[in-house]
Amino acid sequence: MTRFQPRIALALFLALVAFDSSAQPVEKKPQAYGPGEKLTFDVSWSVFPAGKVTATLSREKNGDDFYRVTTTADSQGFASLLYKVQDKFQSVFNPETVCSIEISKQINEGSRHKITKITFDSKRGLAILDERDAGGGDRPQKHEEHQIPPCAQDIITAFYYVRSQPLHVGQNIKLAINDGSKTKVVVAAVTGRKKIQTPLGDREALRVEPSVFGNLYENRKGKIVIWFSDDEYHFPLRIRASLKVGAITGTLTSISPAPPGYAPADKAENGQNAK
Predict the structure, then answer these.
(1) In whole angstroms, what is the distance from residue 47 CA to residue 200 CA?
(2) φ and ψ at 5, to 5 degrees?
């Protein structure tokens, strides 16, 4: 068993919906999310519980009308024994355009500890990466600048960009994702609609398949399917990645504050009929 296997269940989960767009405007619709929203996911790797991921949305307090998403990933149980993960990402974006302003990452995965910040300078058309080793090593600090389109997303705001779209079967969504290197273009295709079972009850959901592998992850093979709720919220109910190391699934288990009808269902199953 390689260290990549338990780590991917949490670390890769944060980037599963890494879409990319050439600054296409968000279609106007009632906003699917707002400050105060907190989403909690249970993450599993094959048959093993791997940990939890939370995403909390707040409003920036520096005078700008920006949103901040604080995302944490913590390994638990068997996976934590194999490879401990405690990651924290903070992403700031413009709620009107869903263009990224900056993202900072505190990575603690096994013996790997680093702090990364990517600033999106739309006026100069640059993503500016600054990264340093936080584990006491002697690795030199890293500074890179890469071109970006007028509007780009990071691996966290990509979720919110997709949720901002109207979403209908047959739709292809393009976004521009930058994670500190070359900007990647990934197409997310809305391929189907069906009712699935979730811990939050039976939900009508839209099946979205992003072409992540061969684009963002050029050297890896696999398939990702995301089920978004087919309502005004477009919650990411389930994210499933089928990879060589096994299946990784993130299941939405809690929404706070919960909208009407989204309280946890006592007898809801884990959505095994969603494939």
Answers:
(1) 21
(2) -65, -55
Tell me, what DSSP letter sits at residue 15?
Answer: G
pLDDT tens digits for range 232-255: 999 999 999 877 767 889 999 999
Q: Where are the beta strands (DSSP E) in 159-245?
A: 172-177, 184-198, 201-210, 222-229, 236-243
pTM, two decimal places? 0.82
Token couple for 140: 């030199």
| Of the candidates 164, 141, 8, the residue with the CA atom closest to the CA atom of residue 94 | 164
pLDDT mean across residues, the chain: 81
What's residue 257's pLDDT?
Answer: 94
Longest dimension (CA), the chain: 53
Report CA 32 to chain centroid distance, whole Å: 16
**How crowded is residue 180: how many other Cβ atoms within 10 Å of its Cβ?**
19
Give Cβ neighbours of residue 115 (< 8 Å, ≥ 6 apart): 104, 105, 106, 107, 131, 132, 134
Tokens coding 43: 């993450």
Question: Is it the case that residue 204 has pLDDT exceeding 90?
Answer: yes
Answer yes or no: are the C-beta atoms of 186 and 177 closer than 8 Å: yes
Q: For residue 247, how far is the Cα from the chain centroid?
A: 17
